[in-house]
Amino acid sequence: MKALIILSSSSRIMMFVTSVICLYNGIKYYNKIKSIKGFIFLSLLSIADSLSYIYLVIIEKNKTTFYKISEQTQILYHVVEIGVILYFFISKNYDQKVLIKKHKTLIFALLTLLYLYNILIQSTNTFLILSELIIVNTLCINYFFSIYKKKISQIDTHKYLINGLFIFINITAPYYILENNIEKTTPFLISYINFINDLGYTILFLSINKEVKWIALK
Predict the structure, then answer these.
(1) CA neighbours within 13 Å on the CB side: how many for 48?
(2) How many beta carbons lie within 10 A of that of residue 126, not counting itself?
(3) I need a labelling partner for 32 at 20 to 30 A (CA). Which of 66, 135, 176, 193 fits?
(4) So where are the chain's domains?
């Protein structure tokens, strides 16, 4: 268990470092990165969250306060995250048929989520996480098929960011769902598994950083 705590603290610091690098490059190349500017704002939110974790959990050893704060900020973070991701995909005016198909698929996914929410889900956080999971997977897979069918120019594929988003959501979403189910019954377990979430975000910020540098230097 001690090894998992060390791993969690180390992964949080690693996520913090990558988000700082991401923010730095985002500001440096801000005028060149166009539709992915919103992702730089995500790195800023992540830095604030990481600083509170480092101070409250690692330095002050006050996990209770951190988790109380995190419970409230998670909702805001997921809403902003979904908005940034949707803006990125929908703002890309590639082939109109691809865009229309993307909208139809997204609407169907959201209607399905609303049905599941009314029938099965009682948690706002879980609803947002499932929404993000379905939205990101739907848009990424649609994007992959568009690349495969060559409906999107190879020079403007945003491959680093898309691949990073796909990996990120499929790592973090299961973690969040598990966290929301165990935080009331066995909250001590969260500190042992939150490295999964930090790993997902580290991958995302590395992907954003690589995308920013690729756009700025091409």
Answers:
(1) 11
(2) 19
(3) 135
(4) 2-217
Structure tokens at 211: 């995308």
C-alpha–C-alpha distance, residues 134 and 129, integer Å: 9
pLDDT of residue 186: 61
The token duo for 130 is 């499932």
Q: Give the predicted TM-score (pTM) of the model.
A: 0.83
Q: What's the CA gap between 69 and 170, in Å, rounded?
A: 25
Neighbour tally for 214: CB within 10 Å: 14
Helix (H, G, I), strand (E, B) or coil at 211: helix
195-217 vs 2-28: helix axis angle to the nearest 10?
20
Contact indicator for 23, 47 with CB cutoff of 8 Å: yes
Q: For 2-217, give the CATH class.
A: mainly alpha
The C-alpha atoms of residue 43 and residue 50 are separated, in whole angstroms, by 10
* Residue 179, Cβ density class (10 Å: 0-12 exposed, 13-18 middle, ≥19 buried): buried
Longest pairwise C-alpha distance within the chain: 54
**Backbone dihedral angles phi then psi of residue 123, each to the nearest 5 degrees:** -115, 130
Amino acid at 145: F
